[in-house]
Design a protein that fits this description.
Helix content is 32%, strand content 26%. It is α/β, with parallel strands linked by helices. A seven-stranded mixed sheet has the order 2-6-5-3-4-9-8, sandwiched between helices. The chain has a seven-stranded antiparallel sheet with strand order 20-21-24-25-26-19-27. The radius of gyration is 23 Å and the shape is globular. The protein binds 1,6-di-O-phosphono-alpha-D-glucopyranose. 1,6-di-O-phosphono-alpha-D-glucopyranose (G16) binds next to loops.
Length: 545
């Protein structure tokens, strides 16, 4: 096998964001762009000789071309085994499961998650380490530093490989192994949940579900697990064939982008009992009941409160974690259970150490992500199976489970307002000016509430002591209400400014308000304080979740 060393020049924009390097497809199509970043990773990881690497993606446009290039570079780097999902497919949680099961050195996941795909869409590369989770910041910083010095990469001169046939092919010293992308993941799910019990509900006609795969990676996983193994009726999985452009849609499971599913779930008495959707790479989830939306923050709290009822979590939870902007609903569950609740910066990578150190069993984020220690990524289908198992155990509707939870713990009204595609400099100034106001806020009254604290969130990892600063401006009130401002780290066009608003309502008599109405005063305060509309030049948010 001939290995070529190719001269290259560094790019200055290969800094990974919240979740890997995400750019427009056209950026990745520039000569050497992909190769430079992959070589930067290979130069920073431990000695690859003889080790196993996992590779797959969400099937979006450019996935196949990128995989062929990475196979050749992995062969040149000296890896012993490369496990690639058939057709280049591996959902993010499945990749995490495979890395862990086969004790791989790590894995490369090609995805821009929920961002649109196709030639004009986005592409992305994530590196996951040996625990199956996203590379921590010290690693992504090292990749970035390396990318700025890189002047050569190495690639094997071999023809493209057939990715459709499961099996092994030698490529020099590398064994290329094309694997069934679903099998290991499905086996793991069977070990965590009571498939027999869920199956009985389907058999008895007591459960009708709709799962929207949004023409993204979860299609094959959902068809195999929900329809084939669990017996949901054919057609329960919608948009189940992965497409390179996600069928022209935006594979983001929220009320704005999963409209078709939302329409079905709002469709009167004959609507399915349970609806769910997942995103481009299968790590996010949205859960719906009949005419009922479960906020991701509530979903996490309900799951934590009920975990002990499910086979995989019978021993109870060691602790829980949530990202800082996620509502404090789960904090109340942790308090009741007498376990620790950790507050981390946005980004699944911050949960890795807590999970590895067994400080937490379950974690979640407001951005439609929930997961547990079974892998080191958030996991969309896992959350769906968790809910199905819970429905089968409690034999109640989604809505009645959530309402009972509110009665027991109180309700955290919660909403996120996104201002997308804002001018980057203006968004930066807005956040800077807010930071300047923080010192003067504690003790002050804003509307009917008194500010208890106002800060720029910083996190000290309790396991390795690493410090991460400037993770969002927080204004907390005496009654637990919060206003948070943050700049997204996953967009590829301009800046996305996120406003998160939350308030706690302990009284069940106050649990029936419409969310935006319930949060109106706080939203107004946030907009006034930040001069949000004037400074962004927008009359309102682009997306409300
Ligand atoms: C990624 C991260 C999540 C984060 C989300 C949104 O998710 O893994 O931890 O909450 O982005 O981040 P931001 O607010 O910075 O845009 P995904 O599903 O896009 O990989």
């Amino acid at each position: 096998m001939d290995i070529r060393t190719v001269d290259t020049t560094p790019f200055d924009d290969q800094k990974p964001g919240t979740s890997g390097l995400r750019k427009k497809v056209a950026v990745f199509q520039q000569p050497h762009y992909l190769e430079n970043f992959i070589q930067s990773i290979f130069d920073c990881v431990e000695e690859p000789r003889g080790k196993t690497l996992v590779l797959g993606g969400d099937g979006r446009f450019h996935n196949r071309a990128a995989i062929q290039t990475i196979i050749k570079m992995a062969a040149a780097a000296g890896f012993g085994r490369l496990m690639v999902g058939q057709g280049g497919i591996l959902s993010t949680p499945a990749a995490s499961a495979v890395i862990r099961k086969y004790r791989a050195l790590g894995g490369i996941i090609l995805s821009a998650s929920h961002n649109p795909g196709g030639p004009g869409g986005d592409f992305g590369i994530k590196f996951n380490i040996g625990n199956g989770g996203p590379a921590p910041e010290k690693d992504t910083e090292a990749f970035f530093r390396r990318s700025r010095q890189l002047n050569q990469y190495r690639i094997a001169d071999v023809p493209d490989v057939d990715l459709e046939r499961v099996g092994e092919t030698p490529l020099g010293d590398l064994v290329l192994q094309v694997i069934d992308p679903v099998a290991d993941y499905a086996e793991l799910m069977e070990a965590l949940f009571d498939f027999g019990r869920i199956n009985s509900m389907f058999e008895a006609g007591m459960l009708d579900i709709r799962f929207d795969a949004m023409h993204a990676v979860t299609g094959p996983y959902a068809c195999e697990i929900l329809e084939k193994r669990l017996g949901a009726k054919p057609g329960s999985v919608m948009n189940g064939v992965p497409r390179e452009d996600f069928g022209g849609g935006h594979p983001d499971p929220n009320l704005a982008h999963a409209r078709e599913l939302v329409g079905i779930m709002n469709g009167g008495a004959g609507a399915p009992h349970f609806g769910a959707a997942s995103d481009g790479d299968g790590d996010r989830n949205m859960v719906l009941g009949q005419r009922f939306f479960v906020t991701p923050s509530d979903s996490l709290a309900v799951m934590a409160a009920n975990a002990h009822r499910l086979p995989g979590y019978r021993m109870g939870l060691a602790g829980v974690a949530r990202s800082m902007p996620t509502s404090q609903a789960v904090d109340r569950v942790a308090e009741r259970l007498g376990i620790e609740c950790y507050e981390t910066p946005t980004g699944w990578k911050f949960f890795g150490n807590l999970l590895d150190a067994k400080k937490v069993t379950m974690c979640g984020e407001e951005s439609f992500g929930t997961g547990s220690d079974h892998v080191r990524e958030k996991d969309g289908l896992w959350a769906v199976l968790f809910w199905l198992n819970l429905l089968a155990i409690r034999n109640e509707s989604v809505e009645s489970i959530v309402r009972a939870h509110w009665r027991a713990f109180g309700r955290n009204y919660y909403s996120r307002h996104d201002y997308e595609g804002v001018d980057g400099a203006r968004a930066g100034e807005l956040v800077e000016d807010l930071r300047d106001k923080l010192a003067g806020l504690p003790g002050k009254r804003l509307g009917e509430r008194e500010v208890r604290y106002a800060d720029d969130f910083a996190y000290t990892d309790p396991v390795d002591g690493s410090v991460t600063e400037h993770q969002g401006v927080r204004i907390g009130f005496q009654d637990g209400a919060r206003i948070i401002f943050r700049l997204s780290g996953t967009g590829t066009e301009g800046a996305t400014l996120r406003l998160y608003v939350e308030r706690y309502e302990p009284d069940p008599a106050g649990h029936d308000q419409e969310t935006q109405e319930a949060l109106k005063e706080l939203i107004q305060i946030a907009e006034n304080l930040s001069e949000l509309r004037e400074r962004t030049g927008r009359s309102g948010p682009t997306v409300i979740t």
